[in-house]
Amino acid sequence: MYQMGSLSLYRKSLFHISVLFLPCFIGVTYCLEFQGLPPLISPPLIPEILNFLDQRLALVYPIIQVFKNTITSDPFHITQTWVGPDICNYRGFYCTSPPDNNSAVALASIDFNGFQLSAPTLDGFIDQLPDLALFHANSNKFSGSISPKITKLPFLYELDISNNNFFGNFPMEIFRIPGLSFLDIRFNFFTGTVPPQVFSLRLDALFLNNNNFIQKLPENLGSTTALYLTLANNKFVGPIPRSIIKASATLKEVLFLNNLLTGCLPYELGFLRELVLFDAGNNLLTGPLPCSLGCLAKLEQLNLAGNLLYGQVPEVLCASGKLENLSLSSNYFTKLGPKCRKLMKKGVLDIKKNCINGLPGQRSVLECKAFSMHPRYCPYPASFNLIPCKVPSSSSHPRTGPKRNLVSYSALSRHAVDFQE
Ligand SMILES: *[C@@H]1O[C@H](CO)[C@@H](O)[C@H](O)[C@H]1NC(C)=O
Ligand SMILES: *[C@@H]1O[C@H](CO)[C@@H](O)[C@H](O)[C@H]1NC(C)=O
To answer: What keywords is this UniProt entry annotated with (predicted)?
Structure first.
């Protein structure tokens, strides 16, 4: 696919963005005034004989060549194509006219996904490409730090450095990118804490999964504007903040699975009206399920397997019309009403390894007794029975079309995230 003409591929890229990120793209990329940037580099030694399509390409030529010389491994011989003046046909490089000049041609996008290039740093490379709007480098072996000079890139809005060898603390430099709307740093070796400001950025997608972040979930988590939020496979602790309700107009997919979250599920979850996927499996969450979850009219997948949840599975949740997968196995639920039993027979509800009398595949009486001896307490106990919506009258479960490709679940593989639905 990388052999395709650069322009058409960039348009394809624009297309997926126009579906997903249109407001941001217009707002950030095309409405930004070009601020007459000073040259980021000292005047380079551009070979006079090379005939560049545009002066802007001549300017980035030496930057690319210097970077090329730092690459220590290139198993697919990508950099062999990085020769001569035709930068727009180098593999991984895409040009289009920049927002500030319709008749110019500029290096707008870099897509190194899957190239497996090794280089000690991207410092001095992406921060020196003034027209860059997208940088995607999934599955390479880049390391080092992100240069603070990245703030000089007025058009950059997608940064994907997933599945690389970045380590150390959260890359604070990203806070200086003025128009960032897509941040993907999953599958690296970042550790320490995620600064709470991340949840105040105007992002559409935030992928932090499969790092080594160790901290309490920040209280301002709900300030996020992201549609896709993946914090899975880290060491987040503490309860899911009630502030999550603030994201009720935007949040579509949330992955908290495989962390060390504690506490009870907040009633406020039931207000996330755009929610399609919520996965907090394999944590230490406890308490009953809030009945408010039955108000999530768009919810298709709810995974809370492998926690310490108990009580009755709310009938109102099982009646929720769009549910395709309700995974509650390996908890301590004790009661299941008729609607939930129907869902179980359909294979939508998995309630194995719980404490439900008379159902096969449950925990032993001893195990259930030991669990129930342990007193547990949730704040705002009355909130668990509240249903803050008009409940649908029947549970017809219309079979929806072909299974949709959930963006967040594709973020759990090391590959580039697939936005095509
Ligand atoms: C726009 O780009 C063209 C082609 O590079 C250039 O000749 C022209 O001077 C630029 N216009 C402005 C206003 O910068
Ligand atoms: C339902 O979701 C769980 C947890 O994500 C997954 O393991 C299981 O395979 C899913 N079941 C179906 C039928 O898709």
So the answer is: Leucine-rich repeat, Repeat, Secreted, Signal
- Tell me if domain 1-185 and domain 207-218+226-415 are identical in fold: yes
Could you report the per-residue pLDDT of 237-251, keeping only the tens digit for each?
Answer: 999 999 999 999 999
Domain limits, the chain: 1-185, 207-218+226-415
- Class at the top of the CATH hierarchy for domain 1-185: alpha beta
Question: Among 61, 51, 73, 171, which Cα is nearest to 107's?
Answer: 61
Ligand located closest to 100 CA? 1
Helix (H) or strand (E) holding 341: helix 338-345
- Distance (angstroms) between ligand 2 centre and the Cα of 349 equals 10
Cβ atoms of 315 and 337 within 8 Å: the answer is yes
CATH class of 207-218+226-415: alpha beta
**Which residues contact ligand 2 via a Cβ below 6 A?**
279, 281, 303, 325, 327
**Phi, psi angles (nearest 5°) of residue 415:** -70, 170
CA distance 281 to 285: 9
The tens digit of pLDDT for each residue in 60-81 reads 999 999 999 999 999 999 999 9
CB-neighbour burial class of residue 104 (10 A; exposed 0-12, middle 13-18, buried 19+): middle
